[in-house]
Write a structure and sequence with these properties.
Number of domains of chain A: 2
Strand content of chain A: 15-25%
Radius of gyration of chain A: 19 Å
CATH superfamily of the largest domain in chain A: Jelly Rolls
Largest sheet of chain A: 4 strands, antiparallel
Number of helices of chain A: 7
Largest interface: A-B, 43 and 43 residues
CATH topology of the largest domain in chain A: Jelly Rolls
Structural class of chain A: alpha+beta
GO molecular function, one term (chains A, B): DNA binding
GO cellular component, one term (chains A, B): cytosol
Number of strands of chain A: 12
Keywords (chains A, B): DNA-binding, Nitrogen fixation, Transcription, Transcription regulation
Helix content of chain A: 25-40%
Oligomer: homodimer
Protein name (chains A, B): CRP-like cAMP-binding protein
CATH architecture of the largest domain in chain A: Sandwich
Chain lengths: 232, 232
Amino acid sequence: MPSLDKSLVADLPMFAGLGDDDVGAILKEAQSIRYPKGASVFQQDEDAHSFFVLLHGHLRVMKVTPDGQQVVVRFVTPGEIFGIAMAMGRTTYPASALAVVDSVALVWPSPAWPRLVAKHPSLAVNAIQTVGSRLQEAHTRVIEMSTEQVERRIAHALLRLAQQAGRKGEDGIQIDFPISRQDVAEMTGTTLHTVSRILSAWEDQGLVDSGRQRISIRNPHKLFLLAEPPAG
Amino acid sequence: MPSLDKSLVADLPMFAGLGDDDVGAILKEAQSIRYPKGASVFQQDEDAHSFFVLLHGHLRVMKVTPDGQQVVVRFVTPGEIFGIAMAMGRTTYPASALAVVDSVALVWPSPAWPRLVAKHPSLAVNAIQTVGSRLQEAHTRVIEMSTEQVERRIAHALLRLAQQAGRKGEDGIQIDFPISRQDVAEMTGTTLHTVSRILSAWEDQGLVDSGRQRISIRNPHKLFLLAEPPAG
């Protein structure tokens, strides 16, 4: 991969604790691939041929249930390792990944994983941390869905997106990739109708501002109070 | 740890790919600790001082929300590594673990983790697989809670428990540790009342049999059809 500046990727969490030479050797085995907006990176149940690091753009990871309902699992932001199904002991991808904007990823063939890890154990140590924080996030969602009203779940989902991919603008924090009300519905286990009703009410209160494929949080503090009402 | 027969633990998934000498060296740093029924192994938000492998018994892992609601995250079965908060980049335990029956665990001090992994990279490779399969499980729960009616969620939860900890008996598959209707409610994001109503109906249909802290699946095939109704 001679075309990529090593300094761009040496700071990624997956390379923490590795020396420059090690990072160079690992990068040498990767290809850099462009995924135009709307392109599929991999499909659910497809053979897990590769693992990836997102360099630029945003991906939506989604899963379809046996009876055809779709759920947004998460969004991948730059710097993240993803598609490590094989490292997790699977032979196929458990979900699909799709570029929501023009995106670029580093791509390694899956069989390189065990060999790279044997040579650079820090890779595995870093991957556990990544998978571990996704596990925490998934548990948080389970808990929210078990215990919270839909309004609080939507507030939590927007705050998480703002933290992951927020860009400060004139009118608050904008979520820095195209996101629809349907996406929010699939992230919070509710319907498009309910999301629309709640976002409209929040717009009237000056909390958020949303349009086609666009959400801004105008008053993060008030949204936080909705997500985490003070006890007592 | 001279009192423990190495052959008892050499087959554990966390030691896959390691030689006898390596396993011996890793075990030498562990203590074996007994947790009588009802004892706490660790508490949510407590300093993550140790990581563990369950040798015998069953643990309930649960999380309390800021407003005091409790959710069962999962049950730990023998052979599982748990409490690896530090490996996941945390300094505290994200949940509490409690012995639901008399249990025994191997216990390592958390600071041993990075050192053991540097020396035995297979440990990290195996831990990613464990954390990865928990992530799959958590996503499955998120998807069930997003898309399924409560009856299907309860059917799925019972089938998963039977797979994890089922013991074949005279009257079907018994879940091999004390489990209450409240536990099932906290695992499926519903109320005790709803679980009781559904389990009573299933008892009338000869699908399950349940008593105080005890659930048996009398007709796994029919329960499976409720969990995964044939398409079309």
